[in-house]
Amino acid sequence: MDFEAVAKYSALHLKPAGLSLQYGTAGFRTKAGHLDHVMYRMGLLAVLRSRQTKSTIGVMVTASHNPEEDNGVKLVDPLGEMLTSAWEEYATRLANAEEQEIQSILTEICQKEAVKLHQYASVFIGRDTRPSSEKLSQSVIDGVSALGGQYHDYGLVTTPQLHYMVCCQNTQEHYGKATVEGYYQKLSKAFGELTKQASSSGDDQMCLKIDCANGIGALKLKEMERNLPKKLLIHLYNDGTKEKLNHLCGADFVKVHQKPPLGLEIKPNERCCSFDGDADRIVYYYNDTAGHFHLVDGDKIATLISTFIKELLMKIGQTLKMAVIQTAYANGSSTRYLEETMKVPVHCTKTGVKHLHHKAQEFDIGVYFEANGHGTVLFSKAAEEKIRHMAKEEKENQKREAAKMLENTIDLINQTVGDAISDMLVIEAILALKGLTVQQWDAIYTDLPNRQLKVKIADRRVIDTTDAERRAVTPAGLQEKIDELVKKYRVSRAFVRPSGTEDVVRVYSEADTQENADSLAHEVSLAVYHLAGGIGEPPQPSLTISSPFDPNYHHNYTLS
User: Fold this and answer.
1) pLDDT for res 477
2) Is it true that the peptide bond before 475 is cis, omega within 30 degrees of 0?
3) Which of 136, 193, 225, 528 is the most exposed place for a label (fewest CB within 10 A)?
């Protein structure tokens, strides 16, 4: 290893004194000015990971839905998936190391992971539209170059596009061409084929307003538009030409504040959606004729897509094992609808995309979406081969046509990661094929009233959970108290889980009315405060919000 080059470059990317960062599900994220050394070191780490896996590794410079002045970085593993846990720990150690420790940490990683130093290394680099991203991606390039790795700088891309291209590269382009143009062509062709059978009646059937969060999604949709069929009319808002990234707009803003983004006027019953800053999340919404806002979140997206796939599977007569993967935050109504009405098995995992993705891989077809709009569908190799074979060879017309629709659905979905562009096209295709309006989709089931709260405690580690974070194991007596409180309310549930980043406990409750959901959340918060070492003032009752159209009403809204 050329430690001289590593040290020489390292002197140009010094770590600020006293800064400590943690690599989480979203990689590293903080103020852009604190990240130069981290980017350089992630360039080094990507080279080692590439040599160890004998594959191309991705490095994406983005802070997703964070404010414009923040930035971040995440590494992409060979099949477009998130970085494996052991290497997340290396990333954290390397980012926090003092200058003189870098050499020993790199050597230790090489020994532990049997990294062959003369192995060819290839790194794909992408970035979002933040003012700081170009300079920071140059720091990544310095890291790759210091260890003699090769790189391809894709420049401005969405996060899912980089994941997709890494997967294409490492499957010898079996998954698709490892170019942005290849991504556009694959998705557009699948969308065109899938929507061929959609009824042509109702000219406004596929008219959609898209809030692009003043981010990369707008640039990429503009490039892609020429590939898309004319029957899909998209109107882009918050395209980054005037306002700041994620400022009062984007999927996260709409989800949390339960209102339309700035810069997008909605007429009654118009179908709208919002991407987040790096285009890996999507939520839909509309205003009804009375002017009330309705959010159609990740739970409803998962329900729409899984219902569509289940119906096609029944048509082709295949008994492929399909499941929807949720977290404890999924609304109880969605779980009930899937299990009882659609007869689709639902599995619950710990919070975090990595856990959902991992669980989804256990099935022939695994559908997962977090309520925030991040999700995708995974097809096993065997399921994909079976479907493609039927699309080609099946003699019976109806079965063959249904198999073709499934095949096009597979090609339209970005299986590597949640992808707002891909998910939007899947949703638009399904709505067109089923002749559904956004209101009819929203009416599939009604969300149970719910509430999220946070309780400050001295040490979040005192709370340990089990059963996919739905039950507390410690401290003693807490779960028994929650069970006792839940019994007081109809169709209710509640759970608590420690935050992954700060000394707070997150409380979630559901009940038959908003008043009861609020009351249950408050009582559980008090139990946490008294039994788990609460600090500061005891939690106060939240205002009772009786209308589902109040901005604080919907689940996933956090009252600090």
Assistant:
1) 95
2) yes
3) 225
Please give the sequence-ordered ranges of beta strands (E in DSSP) within 115-178, or none if there are none: 122-127, 150-156
**Higher per-residue confidence, 273 vs 66:** 273
Q: Tokens 């009375």 appear where? A: 290
Residue 549 in this model has a pLDDT that exceeds 60: no
**High-pLDDT (> 70) share of the chain, %:** 95
The residues carrying an active-site annotation are: 64
**Over residues 168-190, mean pLDDT:** 97
Fold of 3-156: Alpha-D-Glucose-1,6-Bisphosphate; Chain A, domain 3 (3.40.120)
Q: Which residue has the tokens 């959970």?
A: 465
Spell 414-440 as b/e; 16+ CB within 10 A means b: bbbbbbbbbbbbbbbbbbbbeebebee
Q: Which regions of 212-300 does DSSP assign to beta strands (E)?
A: 233-237, 272-275, 282-287, 293-296
Binding site, annotated residues for Mg(2+): 64, 276, 278, 280
pLDDT averaged over every residue in the chain: 92
Kindly report the number of other CB atoms within 10 A of residue 546's CB atom: 12
Using an 8 Å Cβ cutoff, are 299 and 415 in contact? no
Do 509 and 492 contact (CB within 8 A), yes or no? yes
Which fold, 298-442? Alpha-D-Glucose-1,6-Bisphosphate; Chain A, domain 3 (3.40.120)
Q: Compute the CA torsion angle 343, 443, 325, 211 (nearest 10 deg).
A: 150
Is residue 472 a contact partner of residue 463, using CB atoms and an 8 Å limit?
yes
Annotated binding residues: 64, 276, 278, 280, 370-372, 497-501, 506
Domain 450-559 in CATH: superfamily? Alpha-D-phosphohexomutase, C-terminal domain (3.30.310.50)
Of 228, 285, 237, nearest in space to 412 by CA? 228
Strands 70-76 and 56-61: antiparallel
pLDDT tens, residue by residue, 233-265: 999 999 999 999 999 999 999 998 889 999 999
Token pair listed for 305: 């897509």
Q: 354 with 325: CB under 8 angstroms?
A: no
> Is the separation of the CB atoms in 219 and 513 below 8 Å?
no
Which amino acid would we find at residue 450?
Answer: N
Question: Domain map of the chain by residue range?
Answer: 3-156, 182-294, 298-442, 450-559
Tokens read off for 278? 């790096």
Which helix (H) or strand (E) segment is 376 a member of? strand 375-379
Structure tokens at 455: 């309780």
- Dig out the tokens for 182 from the structure: 């290849």
In angstroms, rounded to a whole number, what is the distance separating the alpha carbons of residues 358 and 347? 12
Alpha-carbon distance values, 87 to 73, 82, 407 (Å): 14, 10, 35
With 0.85 as the threshold, say if the pTM is over it.
yes
Binding site membership for substrate: which residues? 370-372, 497-501, 506
Token look-up 């891309």 returns: 157
What's the CA gap between 66 and 128, in Å, rounded?
Answer: 12
DSSP string for residues in 282-318: EEEEEE-TTS-EEEE-HHHHHHHHHHHHHHHHHHHT-
